[in-house]
């Protein structure tokens, strides 16, 4: 506990920075009356997507395959199977945005493939977060000094500093523009600036105010 006067302030910092990553999903589907045929189609189409991704070289930072679903389609009120549905989803992460639009279009051109995204984000260890936290601390100190100055006092010591949280939203914006007639379509992507927010709560000891 401080023996003298104390000022408590909140420091904040807000930045908008370019995204560092873009993620999108590629879902391959298959349907047939025969289960084995459905699985074969699904495996072949998933393999075609893998081959395409393998050919991108360093354009793809990371890919993760998950959400494999195979389900029967039955007639209403019966258990008679009339068809089998299969789907497998791969999440693709890229940091080279120059190749992103072309890659998504090439994947979407595959048979029975759905492409969704992109979702823009920063890396978990992005320097933008550290810079925002530092700026929030500077803001807290500036505020404390302003209050102390208004009282004819000065800041003498930091008593407590607490991180009150930050926001790391991910947002997406995508624009599609068809290419010339008969030519290859073009996909124009607008990377969405990423808001970075940091806030701290700080308590400072100040010298005796000069009142009156």
From TrEMBL:
UniProt-listed Pfam families: SIMPL
Source taxon at top rank: Bacteria
Matches recorded under InterPro entries: 26kDa_periplasmic_antigen (IPR052022), SIMPL/DUF541 (IPR007497)
GO BP of this protein: DNA damage response
Full protein name: DUF541 domain-containing protein
Species of provenance: Micromonospora costi
């Amino acid at each position: 506990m401080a023996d003298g006067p104390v000022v408590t302030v909140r420091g904040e910092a807000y930045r908008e920075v370019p995204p560092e990553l873009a993620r999108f999903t590629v879902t391959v589907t298959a349907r047939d009356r025969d289960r084995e045929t459905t699985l074969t189609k699904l495996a072949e189409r998933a393999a075609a997507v893998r081959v395409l991704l393998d050919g991108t070289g360093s354009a793809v930072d990371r890919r993760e395959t998950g959400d494999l679903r195979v389900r029967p389609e039955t007639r209403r009120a019966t258990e008679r199977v009339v068809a089998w549905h299969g789907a497998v989803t791969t999440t693709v992460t890229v940091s080279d945005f120059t190749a992103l639009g072309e890659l998504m279009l090439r994947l979407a051109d595959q048979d029975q493939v759905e492409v969704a995204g992109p979702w823009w984000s920063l890396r978990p260890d992005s320097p933008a977060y550290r810079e925002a936290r530092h700026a929030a601390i500077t803001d807290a100190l500036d505020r404390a000094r302003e209050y102390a100055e208004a009282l004819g006092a000065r800041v003498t010591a930091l008593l407590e500093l607490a991180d009150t949280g930050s926001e790391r939203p991910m947002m997406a914006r995508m624009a599609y523009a068809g290419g010339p007639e008969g030519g290859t379509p073009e996909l124009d992507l607008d990377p969405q600036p990423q808001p970075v927010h940091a806030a701290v709560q700080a308590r400072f000891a100040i010298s005796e105010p000069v009142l009156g």
